[in-house]
Amino acid sequence: MRGRLRLHVAAAVTALLVLAPLARPGYVLRYDMVFVPRQPLRWDLFASGDALPRAVPQDAVVSLLNLAVPGWLLQRIALVAIIWFAVVGAGRLVPARRELTRLVAAIGYAWTPFMAERLLLGQWGLLLAYAAMPWLVRAAIGLREGRRGALPRVIVAAAAAAITPTGGLLALTTVSVLLLGRGGPGRRAFGAAFGAVAALNLPWLVAAAVTTAGGRSDPEGVAAFAARGENWGGPLVALAGTGGIWNSLTAPASRDAPLVPAVTVGLLILATLGYPVLRDRWPAGAAARLGVLAVGSFAVASLAALPGGAAALRWLVAEVPGAGLLRDGQKLLVPYDLCLVLCAALGGERMAVRLKHPGDRLALVGLVLLPVAVLPDLAYGVAGRLQPVRYPQEWGVVARAVAQEPGPTLSLPMSMYRSYRWNHGTVVIDPLARYLPVEVITDDTLIVGGRSVAGESGRVAQIRGTLAEGRSLAGSDLRWVVVQHRSGGTVPPQVLEGLQVVHNGPELTLYRNPTAPPTETERHGGWPLILGLCFALALLLLAILSLLRRPTAW
After folding, report:
1. Which of 415, 443, 457, 552 is the Cys-Cys partner for 488 at CB 3.0 to 4.6 Å?
2. How far out from the chain centre does Cα 420 lie?
3. For 294-303, what is each residue's pLDDT tens digit?
4. How far is residue 96's CA from residue 118's CA, in Å, rounded to a whole number?
5. Is the dihedral of CA 13, 15, 19, 21 positive or negative?
6. pTM of the predicted model over 0.90
7. Ramachandran assignment for 548, one of left (phi > 0), alpha (psi -120 to 50 degrees), beta (any other)
8. Angle at 232 between CA 226 and CA 235, to 5 degrees
9. H/E element, 481
């Protein structure tokens, strides 16, 4: 009990250190992380009819939770939960004989370059999968051993991971590798767990099946999203240290330090020493299976950096539906990160045993503090880069105006990501798509390092053609057009001819299209999506009720 309390204290301290700026009011808006006061329930947020389901069921879950919890609070709950469950989960999973070793694993798993880089990129849904991974591995090992209540625990942990397609696939792969290949009761356990986790992936699988976008992606994204070297060590060493994100603007400055590769090599040596300890203390075969997951995830993450790997990936994403998930391979490092941290913590314990008291304790305390020393700028919102802001008042004015006459709305200038002065110039995906209570059409072309990565939406391509030709949008089926000033470029005045100005402010100008046809509700195959989401939620609810009825230790 005392050990568990220490882990929760460590989680609280870590969350406070990392998320201290969120004590101020407002919303942290960075790249893919957009929270709004009340995200509406719309069909296109369950899944767009002409785009790949990258935020399914994440957007739908946020919209549902926003019915009860305001956006500013929901964002804080999500971010604190990520750090809290990452710390406690890793500390509970490591088979340590010393409490300090548990703290090494706990802090080591939460205080990583992966955590910092994905926070700066705003991918909180992926980080939920990261935080859920230790719990999922522990539950899967319990299921292998036939522990009571293990299957519901697998479902709950996998449900947290499956809030995004990447997390759902990671959960499905983890369960498969950890449980496959056992006969008798083990085979039935695998079948039940695999079926349950596959069902949790139904929302985005159904969305992918009904979209008109197809499953193929632009192969230009392979080079754009390839792992990046952060210092003299190159991309493979960066990945080995759980970093290497493709976007240099979302990497902490400390990753450029020349000593970082040496620290990475030291961690790999500790992990090599600790793996035999993990193998001996875990049930037979469990460590080897986690090792397979780790090696596999590292291999996929590094594929674009290997000779011939980029060409193979280009072919895959262009020809194989769904292979676009592999373009940003670094995000798949989650099993590797977990295995590295667990083995390094046990390697540190193994080395500490050979030291005399109090040298053994000092060595482990040093390992607890090592992540903070190597990555000090994860503290205080990644060196102050997670800063809450408030939306300008006119955003609410525009939202109320379009709500009176709902219809398709276009956000101009055409740009997927925007930079606002009121958001400290931070790049963020267009918030209008989640702020307004109507379907908002935004650009789906991504510009990365000068490369243009094409989207999948035929409708967006048609609108881009209209703008390029300088034709007025008054002849389109759009009900509203919102022009965002000082963000994303300029709008040719001729494309706005024939539109009526409803609101004209310093940040936004709202135009109404008087010739727009009557709006019909487009469901985009919505009912199958809703049924898939309801089935997944029902499965999760049954698992939670089972655990509450027969409580078992995680």
Report:
1. 415
2. 23
3. 999 999 999 9
4. 28
5. negative
6. yes
7. alpha
8. 20
9. strand 480-484
